[in-house]
Known about the structure:
- The structure is a homohexamer.
- By secondary structure, chain A is of the alpha/beta class.
- Chain A contains ten helices and eight strands.
- Chain A has one domain: Arginase, Chain A (3-Layer(aba) Sandwich).
- Chain A has helices at residues 53-61, 76-80, 95-111, 126-136, 165-171, 194-200, 208-214, 216-227, 259-267, 291-310, and strands at 32-37, 83-87, 115-120, 141-145, 181-185, 204-207, 231-237, 273-280.
- In chain A, helix 5 (165-171) links the parallel strand 4 (141-145) and strand 5.
- The longest helix of chain A is centred in the last third of the chain and has 20 residues, at 291-310.
- The termini of chain A are close together.
- Chains in contact: A-B, A-C, A-E, A-F, B-C, B-D, B-E, C-D, C-F, D-E, D-F, E-F.
- The A-B interface holds A 44-46, 152-153, 155, 158, 161, 163, 185-197, 200, 207-209, 242-244, 247, 251-252, 254-256, 258, 286, 288 and B 1-7, 9-12, 62-70, 73-75, 242, 244-245, 258-260, 263, 288-289, 291, 294-295, 298, 301, 316-317, 319-321.
Amino acid sequence: MTQSNSIIDPRYRGPATFMKAPASRDLAGARAAVLGIPFDCGTHAFRIGSRDGPHAIREQSRLMRPYNPELADYDTISHLGLVDCGDVDVVPGRIEDAFRKIEAATHEIVRAGVRPITMGGDGSVSLPQMRAVAKCHPDLVAVHIDSHTDTNPFVEAEKYNAGTQFTHAALERLVDPKSSFHIGIRGTTYRQHGFSYVRSLGYNIITINALFERGMRDVLAQLHETIGDRPVYLCLDMDSFDPSCAPGVCAPSWGGFTAREGINLFRGLAGLNIVAVDVNTVSPPHDHMGMAAFLAANMMYEATVLLCRYLGLDTVEDVVP
Amino acid sequence: MTQSNSIIDPRYRGPATFMKAPASRDLAGARAAVLGIPFDCGTHAFRIGSRDGPHAIREQSRLMRPYNPELADYDTISHLGLVDCGDVDVVPGRIEDAFRKIEAATHEIVRAGVRPITMGGDGSVSLPQMRAVAKCHPDLVAVHIDSHTDTNPFVEAEKYNAGTQFTHAALERLVDPKSSFHIGIRGTTYRQHGFSYVRSLGYNIITINALFERGMRDVLAQLHETIGDRPVYLCLDMDSFDPSCAPGVCAPSWGGFTAREGINLFRGLAGLNIVAVDVNTVSPPHDHMGMAAFLAANMMYEATVLLCRYLGLDTVEDVVP
Amino acid sequence: MTQSNSIIDPRYRGPATFMKAPASRDLAGARAAVLGIPFDCGTHAFRIGSRDGPHAIREQSRLMRPYNPELADYDTISHLGLVDCGDVDVVPGRIEDAFRKIEAATHEIVRAGVRPITMGGDGSVSLPQMRAVAKCHPDLVAVHIDSHTDTNPFVEAEKYNAGTQFTHAALERLVDPKSSFHIGIRGTTYRQHGFSYVRSLGYNIITINALFERGMRDVLAQLHETIGDRPVYLCLDMDSFDPSCAPGVCAPSWGGFTAREGINLFRGLAGLNIVAVDVNTVSPPHDHMGMAAFLAANMMYEATVLLCRYLGLDTVEDVVP
Amino acid sequence: MTQSNSIIDPRYRGPATFMKAPASRDLAGARAAVLGIPFDCGTHAFRIGSRDGPHAIREQSRLMRPYNPELADYDTISHLGLVDCGDVDVVPGRIEDAFRKIEAATHEIVRAGVRPITMGGDGSVSLPQMRAVAKCHPDLVAVHIDSHTDTNPFVEAEKYNAGTQFTHAALERLVDPKSSFHIGIRGTTYRQHGFSYVRSLGYNIITINALFERGMRDVLAQLHETIGDRPVYLCLDMDSFDPSCAPGVCAPSWGGFTAREGINLFRGLAGLNIVAVDVNTVSPPHDHMGMAAFLAANMMYEATVLLCRYLGLDTVEDVVP
Amino acid sequence: MTQSNSIIDPRYRGPATFMKAPASRDLAGARAAVLGIPFDCGTHAFRIGSRDGPHAIREQSRLMRPYNPELADYDTISHLGLVDCGDVDVVPGRIEDAFRKIEAATHEIVRAGVRPITMGGDGSVSLPQMRAVAKCHPDLVAVHIDSHTDTNPFVEAEKYNAGTQFTHAALERLVDPKSSFHIGIRGTTYRQHGFSYVRSLGYNIITINALFERGMRDVLAQLHETIGDRPVYLCLDMDSFDPSCAPGVCAPSWGGFTAREGINLFRGLAGLNIVAVDVNTVSPPHDHMGMAAFLAANMMYEATVLLCRYLGLDTVEDVVP
Amino acid sequence: MTQSNSIIDPRYRGPATFMKAPASRDLAGARAAVLGIPFDCGTHAFRIGSRDGPHAIREQSRLMRPYNPELADYDTISHLGLVDCGDVDVVPGRIEDAFRKIEAATHEIVRAGVRPITMGGDGSVSLPQMRAVAKCHPDLVAVHIDSHTDTNPFVEAEKYNAGTQFTHAALERLVDPKSSFHIGIRGTTYRQHGFSYVRSLGYNIITINALFERGMRDVLAQLHETIGDRPVYLCLDMDSFDPSCAPGVCAPSWGGFTAREGINLFRGLAGLNIVAVDVNTVSPPHDHMGMAAFLAANMMYEATVLLCRYLGLDTVEDVVP
């Protein structure tokens, strides 16, 4: 029985890796690995700053503790052998160079049979990750939880930004749009006829209104039925949450998920073969009290539970303390 | 097909009119007009500061973009020919003088056949607006969404403040109380027997508890049935929202609407003949991260959708980008 | 008919006792008494600072007003003869000495037949209070609303902290665990097999997920049936609320109660013989805009309503103003 | 030897009167009395909110402790028999009524031979105080430390606001302008030829630039020589401090006093017969971390030292602890 | 005599142009023009966000009023015929395209004989401005007040960023380095031998330590003697101020100018032929209470005084109000 | 020539050790080592929270860069072979146990001939450090920069707290009080006759007023003359800085050092044989924008320069980049 507690190991002490996982790039023995992607130069519209997202999420993850008695009464970090690989060595400005580095760093993890859990950075960083994951998982589908589809048409001169990553994912055939879902879509956009374009690429759109009208159970059933055991790229843009929960995002939009709704949506994904988790768009300069970063850390923890379940690592020893 | 986007027109650039509508007092061609009313001297109880509300709402409205693919896939600002008329030239302290100026500025808009969308200022500013609107719409009813009825008895020396505007509206017969509604009422007040007095004037009260017990659908049906096509003065006090969504208000009260609930309540008003929209009580010095102001801007956008729908301006061109 | 209003008595004026109740240690004539317990040295895990909780709650309680027309159209403060007894004279560091003082101060109130409404301080302060209350109410049961059970096993050297108070309450037989409830439990902990230990002591656990799956009505029915008219120690840890409502707590956890849910849970306790109310864990240095403190003040007001109802003090005079 | 310390008396505990002085209106035995004046309706220009100033200053004064070993190694509060009289019962809006109440409350203190130390409220509240003080001290002079002279011409309809109090003081002959000083003046104003008008009333102006060019020693010598032992109304507008020290004021202006400069200026006034101290213009909603309020509390403490010195109460007992 | 005041024209009302100057691109009659440059993609090191700088400075400039009785008892805005030209239509990401637009917009002003007062944007935006100014003023010198020289060596692939603008200015011969000054330099950098490189290009460096050791008077004498009446590009990076005054900058560094020191330094430049003023590096997401933006607005006001003086527009009418 | 820059190594990327020094406990080759001491249970008076100080200082140290062209144009971190040893494994509450661990961790560094640079934690943590340092340096003197002497008399039951560490240092003969200095003392305290007690133990007190009256040069000369080459324990309590620079401390006091004054005081210590550096009292929950933590990081950097100078490691290579 693994034990840790506030007396032995106060959370404010020592280096702030994700949930105090070992800082290491050694993937041997790991089933999952955390990777930070401090890149925000795909943010055109308004609030830039997610380059400091990985740092802030690690800091807030200190508030997370290893056991969840109801959900997962075991230490997901140690069951997964999770390591915190640090940050991709991107620099500002050169988006194509950054994309190559992100793709390489992600690919190194995926090809080792390890499932990456990444923290952005803005939404643009999802594209090189999908490129890397698709190399190893040709039948990939995306479950993209966001208030925006990030599937805009583009002009060549500005082809890469935080609004076009799923356009490229479809055009480059990284994911199968017909089995992929944009979930939680709401709010205003820069473009007319946005949904027509998204659907013309083959994607499914489930707006947040549709989700609550149909009921989460119904939507989840559709997902499971459509996707089956195909490998899933799970992408969570933190602006899918309501600004009352996640103020520090790039393009906030009212009417989003409460924390509990978002947590329940994630839990409903249990059973999917999630091969990569991508949590992005925490913008610390626009956050307050680290709320968006703390919620992102919480969702990454929920992802570790999903991985443990799928991988059969959710064993709870019988010893009573 | 009108197009704008983050590349061509980043939201942080240029003057902060409401949603970047033209700054103009020229009402020709306009179906709706935004007007700021920076007056807060009706705030007696506690938190004064809504004089800076119009500025803060304009600033936050920069986060709103023109299209909403699910709700309104057209540019409501341009379809309405909406202009931002700037602020009424009120000064602090002289409430009766301020009321005359507010009434005159509102009347100028209404008598031109244009629907005003105003941003306060505290709740006291609704009275002169109702005086102006009632001149042109004798059969006016009020839909007042608030945590307080603002229908207190008054003493002559203090007849005008942010708690008596709907008392005067009834006594001056500006609205028909029997068809008018106070919706979302909750929380503590300074006075006993408050509801008796409100009902003695003829008003309908739907507390937030009653609303959720009956269900929003049922309440909305009652509103539509009672009001029909009579002209509606739609008044939204931002303290109807929960402090977790709208901290920066004058008299916050826990247990209010979430953003999604408030948005859905507004959407349920579609079909009403809303002739004036009044969003008040954003107090920027008590806000944080501009949350209340941003939510107010969002609700004003929702109001533009309601106006487009009623006026048949909700046409979406067929061209796919 | 008691009257007060914003003209006569603005809330920002004068000393900030709880809801402007008289500052007094004279319990004669009082049915309830507020007591501050500024002690936070049981906070081991992370965010210390609740020593300033009582001050912050009193400050925010200035936003509360005496009447609630729907819920309680009478002045609960004056109907209860509520007095604000100030703070227990605890000092930092010496937890056993502090516990003796807290027990003595609480006992002084309870043995006078007065119901204490206390504001912590961290959760550790509940133990000496339960010791005091149990002396006068041998058949005591606890209703503990929290995201954590605070029923951890302990080592002798660290027996008292903010995670073991309900362990001791069971072991010292201060409350009857079989009729006592931990409600709203969720989130991560330091220990494996936490629930097994809690249940081995006899306690009932109702996680927040179980509560919403079963429905609040069903859970409340179980409580009322189990508890009947036995004396109840009502303990509210403010971290039971979601961080979007109550950011300033010691160990925040996403997915908690909204303000409205928490209020409704409290209202559902009407009819219980609540002999002591304990609201703890507001940590002002980690709060923003006083949100957690304001919500705590609101819940304490809701508690005064519960006490008035049980004691038959909920009389509303018939005079219309 | 009076003693208090952090073990016996932590500052965060108990009611927040000014520096924990007794809350009392009993002036018998007192040589000085603190009075709050929560009125801000003279604030026309921009940032309203100083109505909450007295509350915030009391809260921050908890950080002040009784002894200053270098400056005043005795408890000034107890040596002065200082009492905290609470707040004047002003209400918003009715400035002339408020002025009557402020004058009466101040007069009650002054005519008892007690020296008031008041905390505003905006600058307008100085006028009724000077009216009260001048009744008992006909030869009064003003030492006014501010970034503005608050000596503007006025129109009859707006005669009273936070920019005209020293105009009226001169015209009503409450103070002798020729021996009175505006010190620390700087920054921008609404009016041209402001200094001409001020000087035409007889006042001396010492701009902050003049003060630092001449040197503080030289300026203080002029003050002492001009004023001698005449009774002094000492008025400190907190906006005389730089915004880096006192952000929470109504009309901030860069280039003001640092805390140390302001403290030294006050200390240089030792020997003046200060009969009233008026610290105003703390606006809590525009403050952060309570900085302006904390600095105001500190300056009020410095004033108690000045009073002790002038009154010969600065005796330090010889007992070594 | 121009007059405005708080009664007639409260500062919080109406559109927030710089100090309420007319929003116009019509340069006829103007001697100076304000231009916003919302571009921050030259910020590589850490804190990005100055794209929102122009908006924040305009907002805070509402706190500035037209007259300064000691310094400039006339309305500098109207004496200069100053117009606020809005923002250059830059978009994120494409730095060379942005530079072309900035150069064009600046050149349009300069070639009309108007002196631009610009607000960034990060420091990279100075280069295209110097290109534009140098076209019309071939004998240009730079007075650059900053904590960094922004004169780093560069690699071709990253030639343009917020640390190389004065390198290019020297290499492109836009300014004469031998008569140009970097003033206020302090703190840590990424590179060794930084000063050698700067001096190898010909520039003068006056560190903040050197400035205070020599005395400001001595340094200013050197400047005036060296520069004479040659046209001056006055560039103020707001990080030259101490973080206690200007927290919201890209690369803060302790030990900088206080507000008063910075103001006095500017005033000491009176008499120089300043042909362009460039105030940059306000990063609103990292600011609090708008302090850096408010101080930037204040410095821009000081610049208007410098321009009025040089141009002989500093006439004060004789009429006493 | 060592080089790093924003392109190659942006500061926001990767683990936040102190100034990106290697995270290591391997002291071989190191001349100095950073150690965090996250303990705050000696904080009795008011604002607790410095347990999170080391984390916050590391985070803010990301803003520091390796070279200072004027002061130290070489990489002090690499010249010292500085390692960041992480945090002492203290837990809250058990002060004597914590003291043993702090002493052991410090001793391990000192006995290896390495100079510790520690970051608290509250001031109480200085005592065990002085115990460790004194073991290896029997002739130790203290230079203690603080607004309080922390040399209070104590009662046995509370002998260890953040106000008695220098009392014990004298009584345990860890330092030689006659050659030790408390510098920068100011403000209010809990006790009368504080200075008498401090002097009775032999310490020198230089108040901040005395320092500025005598001049820093004169005070520094006294220090150098008195101390000579004896080993120095350099202790900096961050509350020696003014709250405008360092708001986030436990017991703030107005009138303190500006950043530049504090930096210059440190630089004046060059030549002293500083064998240990102790920077304490950063309380992140009471900080804003990380100001106190950032300034603490800056002072630690200044300490690395002092160490390099004394150790002859201040060599600058001649290569021009």
